[in-house]
Amino acid sequence: MSNILLMHIGMPKTGSTALQSFLFTNRNILEKYGWRYPLLASELPDVQGHYSLVTNGNFFYDFIHEFEYGMDTRSDDWDEKWNQVLKHLESKNVIISAEALSVHETEKFLAGAVQKYHNIKIVIYLRRQDRMVESFYNNRIRDGVFDGTFKDYLDTDEVRGMCHFFPILELISRIIGKENLIVKVYEKRQFSRQGYSIADDFLDILNIEKNQNEWKDSGTINPSIYGNYYNIRKIFNSIYGINSDLDQEVRDWEYNDLFMQVSNFFHKDKGERGYFAKEERKEFLDRFALENEQVARDYLNREDGILFYDDRMDYPLYESSQYSNFEEDTIRIFSAMICAQNQRIRVCMQDYDAMRKQCNFLRKKVLMLAIEQKSRMRKILLFAAGNKCRELIDIIREIPIAVIADNDLAKEGMVFKNETKVVNAKKIKNWSEYFTIVTCCKTDEIEMQLQGLGLKKEMDYILARDYGL
C-alpha cells in the first residue's frame, strides 16, 4: 500500500502554530515511527518561501497562495515543491500543515493536490466559534492589523468566512472523499486522553504512543496580549498599523513582539477572558447551532448532535478602557512621534541600501577582475555549499561554475539553481585543475585543508569574504 500524505488543516486558533513547532522540533523522532515532516524550505534553497517557514519548515503556506488568484497564476515552484513531497512519499508517510488551507482557495488547492497524489488524508480541528473569533480578534489587535471594536470585527468578512464549518467539511469531502477526512474538536475534554495537548492528540492520530522522555517540548507559541496593553495597542494601531503606507507584512509584525513581551512580562493575570457578554455569546452561538449539529451527526457520528462539550458562557471580559481622554490623547501623540521617527529611519535605511548596492557593485567588479586574472583559464570551483554560496552564484552569474564542493556528506547531490551539483570534497582528484573560491565566512579549517593539498592563497584559491562578499 502506498504511503499516506497527511494534511493538517489549521482552522483559525486551533493550536496550529504550536503543533507545527512540535512537529518541527521532533521531526527526527517522527522518522523512527515512519512519518516525515519535510523541511522543504532548506531542501529547496532556490525556491522562494514565506517568512513563516522559519518556524515550521513546510512550504505549504505558499502552496496554497499559488491559487489565491486562480489556477493559471501559480508559479513554476508549484511542481518543484510537489516533486519534493512525492520524493519523500516514496519512503515515508508525510505530514504537511498550514493554517491557510481553511481560508485561501481551498477548493482549487485540493483539486490540484489530488491530481498529484492519490492517498491523501486530511485532519481538521474545529474550535467553538465564539472562542475562536475572540482569540482571532485579540491577535488582530496584537499584530497591528485592526483598530476597531470587537463589535466592528464581528461585522467583517473574515469572521463570516471562518465560522461556518459545515460547508468547508462538505467541500473537502467532495474532493478527497469523506472517508479520508478526520474531524477533531479543539477542546481539552475532547482530546483522545485527559490532560492531552493538541500535539499529544495528533500523535494518537498517527498511532504513536507518546513517551514523555522521548519527545521535546516546543515551548509557548503565539501568546495573546493582555490588560491595558491590549487597549494601548489598539490606539497605537489607529495611528500606525492601519494608516501607514508601509507594506502590510511589515505593519503586521514590526511592533507586535514588543507589545507581546511587555504584556506577558508585566501582566500577571493571564486567565481566560472574552469580549462577549453572556447573552451576546449565546446569541452569537445560536447562529451556528443547526450547522454544528449537522457537523456532529455527519462527521462525528453523534446522534445527539452535540459538537462542542464546553457549554461555558460566562467568561470574564477583557478589561475595558480605563484611561481618561487626556491619557488616550497622550498615547496617540507618542504613537505618532514613534511612527514619524520610524519613517525617518526608513528613509535613512533606503539611502544606506542604495550606498550598499553601489559598494556591492564595485566589490563584484573587483572580484570578477580577480577571478579573471588569477584563474588563468582554470575551471571554477566553489567550496562550501551554504547560503553564501547561493549568494555568490547570483553575484558572479556570468562566470560558469564547474563544480561546488563541500565536506558535508549530507549535501552531496544537492543541485543549485544554476544546475551545478554538489560533490564531496574528498572526490576532487586534481585540485590544480580548478581555481577555488571559498564561499563561507569561517574559513580556517578549509584553508588548512587547501594548503595541505598544496594550494596557495591568491594563486590557487581566494576567500570571497576578502572581497567584501
Describe the structure.
With 469 residues, this protein is an alpha/beta fold. It contains 20 helices and 10 strands. The strands form 2 sheets. The protein has a 5-stranded parallel beta sheet with strand order 2-3-1-4-5. Strands 8-7-6-9-10 form a 5-stranded parallel beta sheet, covered by helices on one side. α7 runs parallel beside α11, α13 packs antiparallel against α15 and α13 packs across α18 (325-375). The two termini are 50 Å apart. 29% of the residues are buried.
Poorly predicted regions: 50-55, 68-73
Listing every helix as H and every strand as E from the N terminus to the C terminus, the arrangement reads EHHEHHHHEHEHHHHEHHHHHHHEHEEEHE
- Gap between N and C termini, in Å? 50 Å
User: What does the main sheet amount to?
Assistant: 5 strands, parallel
Question: How are the strands of the biggest sheet laid out side by side?
Answer: 2-3-1-4-5
Overall pLDDT: 83
Q: Radius of gyration, Cα only, in angstroms?
A: 27 Å
Q: Which percent bin holds the helix content?
A: 40-55%
Figure out the total of helices. 20
